Amino acid sequence: MGSTRGLRYGDGVLGGPQDAEQTRLAAMADVCDPTTIRVLDDLGVGPGWHALEVGAGGGSIALWLAGRVGATGHVVATDLDIDPLQRRLHAQGDRQRHTPDRGPLTVLRHDVTSDPPPEQGPFDLVHARFVLEHLPERERVLDRLVSWLRPGGTLVVESIARFPLDSCAQPAFRRAMDALDTVLAATIGTDSTWARTFPAPLRARGLSEVGMTVHLPVTGGANASALCWALTLTRLRTRIVERRLAGDDVLDAALAQLADPDFADLAFATVLAWGRAPAHTTDAPGSRG
Predict the structure, then answer these.
(1) DSSP code of residue 166
(2) CA dist., res. 36 & res. 46, Å (int)
(3) What angle do CA 133, 134, 140 make, to 5 degrees?
(4) For 99, which DSSP code?
(5) Does residue 98 register a pLDDT over 60?
(6) Which of 34, 124, 172, 187 has most Cβ atoms within 10 angstroms of its Cβ?
(7) d(CA 51, CA 49)
(8) Residue 106 β-bridge partners
C-alpha cells in the first residue's frame, strides 16, 4: 500500500514531545536494548571505535556506545528529532557530553535520506534500529549507510517483522495489530515484511561476515512490550478508526488485553542483520592512520 505523500514518522504519526511518546520510547528501549547490546558486544565494539547511531530516539544505545568506545572513540547520534536525547543529557547534567569513563558524544539533527554524511565519518560502526522499514526509500538509504563505513567497518540494521501476527489466535489483538501495521504502511510507507528479506540486502552490497538473529519478545502481563504496543495503538487510534481498519470495540478489547496481567501473545519480531565492509587496509578498528 502506498504512503500519504510527504508524511514521515515524526509528522504527527508517531514521534513528538508528548510525555506518552517519551514513555513509549523508553518502553521500546527496555524491550530491545538487551538484544541490541548483545549483538554489538558479540561484534566486538570496543575502545577507539567511531560509531554512528542513526535514529537515536531517546539515546539509550548511543549512550551505551559512548561508554563502550571510551575516551579514544567517538559516537555520533542522529535523528530528525533530537529533543528526547538532548533532554536526557540535560537531565543527567551532561552538558559537555563527555566524562572520564565515556567517549565524546555528538548529537546531530540529520535527515538520513538527504543530508550529507556526518563529517565525523567514515565509521567503524553504523547502527540503525527501527528506521529503514519506515522509509519508502529504504534501499537507497541502505546504500548510503554502507558508503559511510570505513574499510572493515560494521553495519547493523534492525527492523520490525510482522510474521508472528500471522498465527495469532487472539482475534481482537490480531485485528488491532493488523490495523496498526496497515495504517503505518498507508501513512508513512512502513514495510513490516522487508526484514524477511534479510540478510540478502547486506550481501547484495558486498558486505561479508554477514549474520542475523531474531528477537521475539512476549507481549503481555502489562510488561514493557505490552506498554509500548498499547501506547502505539492509542497514538494511532484516530487514524485506524478513520480508515475503518478496526472499530473502537476492537481497539478497546485489544488495549484491555495488553493491560491484563494474564494475557500473553506475540506481536512483531525484531530482525537484526549485520555485515562487514571489505577491509582494504589492515588497520584495526578505531585507527585513523
Answers:
(1) G
(2) 15
(3) 70
(4) B
(5) no
(6) 124
(7) 6
(8) 76
Contacts of 251 (CB under 8 A, 6+ apart): 176, 179, 233, 237, 240, 241
* Residues constituting the chain: 289
Cα angle at 156 between 139 and 25, to 5 degrees? 95
Percent of the chain with pLDDT over 70: 88
Q: Which long-range contacts does 250-256 make (Cβ < 8 Å, 24+ apart)?
A: 250/172, 250/175, 250/176, 250/179, 251/176, 251/179, 253/172, 253/173, 253/176, 254/172, 254/173, 254/175, 254/176, 254/177, 255/176, 255/230
The CA angle 107-142-134, to the nearest 5 degrees, is 75
| Euclidean distance between CA atoms 65 and 49, whole angstroms | 9
- Cα separation, 179 vs 89, in Å, equals 35
| pLDDT digit string, tens, across residues 197-229 | 999 999 999 999 999 999 999 999 889 999 999
Q: In what order do the strands lie in the sheet with 269-276?
A: 105-109, 74-79, 50-54, 123-129, 149-161, 269-276, 208-215
Mean pLDDT computed over 46-65:
95
Tell me how far apart the terminal alpha carbons of the chain are, to the nearest angstrom: 48
The pLDDT tens digits for 224-268 are: 999 999 999 999 999 999 999 999 999 999 999 999 999 999 999
In this prediction the pTM is 0.90
Q: Are 216 and 266 in contact (CB under 8 A)?
A: yes
Place of cell 572493515: 152
Q: What cell was used for 220?
A: 503481555
